């Protein structure tokens, strides 16, 4: 797949499939086109495809306690080209809204991403400069590779803008940083000179065959404007310290230069990048292998699968305490969240052939259970976790069954079944936040004043915007699915299921949600229905044990299509509702008030697609995904955004969101396999529920 073509960027030869997208010079200038690189430890390098910093999270971020306690150390390279007595800056910094310092944007010939590795090309005075960026795994380093083509000798001056702070904040005043120059290596430390053992920056230059002049650092304040922080009502200016560090003289014909900027922590200190070009080749090959494995595993060999498989890799990281694989819910500001991890597990790991990571990820959260609840989120400061979730542990049960169904790993099923049963026991007898089975009907009650428990979980200064206390419909679907998972796993292991009666009773009671020809979004403890039109009913009906009829599924499909469906996802509340908020933006209180009151979310769209496929509506399912598929290339490149404004459909929240990306991959594979089946003579499906789970069909 490709967009606007450019004459400059040329794909290096690497094995395996290639996912490619190119941007012409005008498109490449857009600072809203963001690229993400990650190191597998929670650290990342973030910026626009052209290199413009747009957030306080832009630049190089490293984790002190993987994957949390993250610090920003470096904002942007400073790059200046000298040729035949002329000079041009290759970087571009926004210093006020729409005002840029540096000629980086106007010199662009285009930009491209190859397996989501970004590069840009610039042209000045007949000299072409191609810049590629990557992060070697576990290194905490952003590596900038410059390829210069020139008919005459040129000089490339390189340096950078440095900071040292918590990634969520900015330097309002000139930061106190200490530069130590040592030829081809420069270190930049924080106010204590690094004596406190905190992260510091090591910048290293590589330029084989070139003449390198090490410059004496002369740090100067540089003010930077962050447009995306301004749109979010956050502090939008920062004072950085900038300095030129080296001048590299290249002969006629040009040459190659590498700038390695590493955030040094205990986890990254032993990962020096000795040969940047070899490291790039290894990373390119690794990404191609990820894409090929996903195509083979899913049975869908197209470029979208390849792209999303490489994107999926960004979210899978190593956790230090408790040790194991976990999922960063979204970049740049989320840490790892339990609910998000379990929903995203299928797309991130099972469809991509990363079964070992799936097992490790499940192990991380099974080991973290407390009174039958999985952590809603681990705190980004490394100081613990929150357990305010009713659905996270139930999604864990769903993910566990999917893993065993796909891999046939009965050994893991046997070792995990006691934890699953303990989880169910806690729900039956009652656990935190009023979560317990209602003795009257066997359905799951949840709710506590001032606490948000479902995925619609915003709380603003004590105000729970969408409390949904009582019996939310998707929670009942998940409760049934968790009970069903125990039964099926027990059968597979030759053991006696222990919750058959609880499952039967809850299934008998579920029809109480069908009132007046439609499903309620929730039932209060006294049975009063909440008739809000939200996407949660689709989530419930797409799960494997939810009792329904074809007519009821058709009614839900019509309701979603007429009131909730948009080109990029589903509204969280019908626009016909008086509480609907169509504008997602502004300060946090404004964003949070709209978050689940009409804002569009992509990830629940997959449940709607499953309902369409259950009714044989393959073409309509493909049409429902069309807008989101195109969105992959227009915000967080290769990924899917967290949310979209209800009215304008402008992307918002994190531009790189785990469950959004993973669920688009799952939906695309489901539809692609259904299209392949439809191309063969076969009777149309008639079942009302979702398609069965198998290695070929991951629902």
Task: Give me a quick take on this structure.
The chain is built from 16 helices and 40 strands.
List the helices and strands and how they pair.
Blueprint: E1 20-23, H1 25-28, E2 34-38, E3 44-48, E4 59-65, E5 68-83, E6 86-89, E7 93-96, E8 99-101, E9 108-114, E10 117-124, E11 127-134, E12 141-149, E13 154-166, E14 178-182, E15 185-189, E16 200-206, E17 211-214, E18 220-225, H2 227-231, E19 237-250, E20 255-264, H3 276-298, H4 303-313, E21 316-319, E22 324-327, E23 330-331, H5 338-350, H6 355-366, E24 377-378, E25 385-386, H7 392-407, H8 410-429, E26 436-437, E27 444-445, E28 459-460, E29 463-464, E30 471-472, H9 473-492, H10 500-509, E31 514-515, E32 518-519, E33 522-523, E34 529-530, H11 536-541, H12 550-564, E35 565-566, E36 569-571, H13 588-594, E37 600-601, H14 605-614, H15 618-631, E38 643-644, E39 651-652, E40 656-657, H16 658-678
Antiparallel strand pairs: 1-9, 2-3, 3-4, 4-5, 5-6, 5-13, 7-8, 9-10, 10-11, 11-12, 12-20, 13-19, 14-15, 15-16, 16-20, 17-19, 18-19, 21-22, 23-40, 24-25, 26-27, 28-29, 30-33, 31-32, 33-34, 35-36, 36-37, 38-39
Helix pairs in contact: 3-4, 4-16, 5-6, 5-7, 5-16, 6-7, 7-8, 7-9, 8-9, 9-10, 14-15, 14-16, 15-16
